[in-house]
Design a protein that fits this description.
Layout (H helix, E strand, L loop, with lengths): L1 E5 L8 H15 L4 E5 L9 E4 L14 E6 L11 E6 L17 E4 L13 E2 L19 E6 L21 E2 L1 H4 L3 H8 L2 E6 L5 H8 L3 E4 L7 H7 L7 E3 L4 H6 L8 H19 L1
Parallel strand pairs: 1-2, 1-4, 2-3, 4-5, 5-6, 6-7, 8-9, 8-10, 10-11, 11-12
């Protein structure tokens, strides 16, 4: 089997884009002929680049043995592939039209909350791309006391008086995080405490790797135990709600220790995906 992954150009500002490119790389390292359809990918990726831009005609030929992998922002089948996997990285229909599913499409969710509309998924495909050599605690003087991330947590009304959970004069980081991993590392080595309204943000994990105290504002209806079960890598060193802060402080030293475990989980998730589609 061959694979072609549709994606925007590589960007360290968006976790969803990063994992699309990383999936193509992991599939290639498993011995599959794999292309990433975009203009550019990350350095040292094992996947080949197939020149294409989302929303434009696809002028390359693919054979019947090639599996196309589309994120939910692509609702049709631009590659005209006979084999299709839909990977729901966020919310179907949130940023594009609802997906025009084929009868034999495979559907995978990035996480338990990323459910397809009116369809049942075949399982989870959850991987994380961690630039651990860049995201490190540099032991710098931290001159920014508080900062906060909103991103996909905007529905928690972070600026309403009754629902605001970040301290006054907290630095807003959403635009800063879009500047890439190098800038995130520099920034998070200056911040003492980060509040994240986005419960699934890569930025929150990046902040923890850089030595920040991190508090995730809980999602209504999602308990602490359920959150840890769904996102085990966000347990150590990260508080789920302010009351969880003492436990998070005691486990901060485990954040970097668990990086090898995350890479193993990536490989296991890809292996399960391959078992289900073949």
């Amino acid at each position: 089997m061959k694979f072609i992954v549709a994606a925007p150009d590589y960007s360290e500002a968006h976790g969803g884009i990063m994992v699309l490119h990383y999936l193509a790389h992991l599939l290639a390292t498993q011995g599959f002929e794999t292309s990433i359809a975009c203009k550019s990918t990350f350095p040292h990726s094992e996947a080949s680049v197939l020149d294409w831009v989302i929303g434009t005609p696809f002028n390359h030929a693919i054979d019947d043995q090639t599996m196309a992998i589309y994120p939910e922002i692509i609702s049709d089948n631009p590659f005209k592939a006979r084999k299709v996997t839909r990977w729901i990285l966020y919310k179907e229909g949130e940023r594009s039209s609802p997906i025009q599913y084929g009868l034999d499409d495979f559907i995978f969710q990035y996480g338990p909350f990323h459910t397809p509309l009116n369809r049942k998924s075949h399982g989870l495909l959850h991987i994380r791309m961690i630039n651990a050599e860049i995201l490190q605690n540099r032991q710098n003087k931290r001159d920014i006391p508080f900062a906060h991330i909103v991103r996909k947590g905007y529905l928690k009304n972070p600026y309403a008086f009754k629902s605001r959970r970040h301290p006054p004069r907290s630095k807003f980081l959403d635009e800063e995080c879009r500047r890439g991993i190098q800038h995130m590392s520099y920034l998070f080595n200056r911040v003492r405490l980060v509040v994240s309204y986005d419960s699934e943000s890569f930025c929150a994990y990046a902040a923890a790797l850089c030595g920040c105290v991190v508090v995730i504002i809980p999602t209504k209806g999602i308990s602490k135990l359920q959150f840890w079960n769904d996102f085990p890598s966000l347990k150590s060193g990260i508080a789920y709600g302010w009351l969880d802060l003492p436990r998070a402080m005691l486990t901060r030293n485990r954040v970097r220790e668990e990086l090898e475990k995350i890479e193993q989980e990536n490989l296991e998730s890809v292996a399960k995906f391959l078992d289900l589609i073949q």
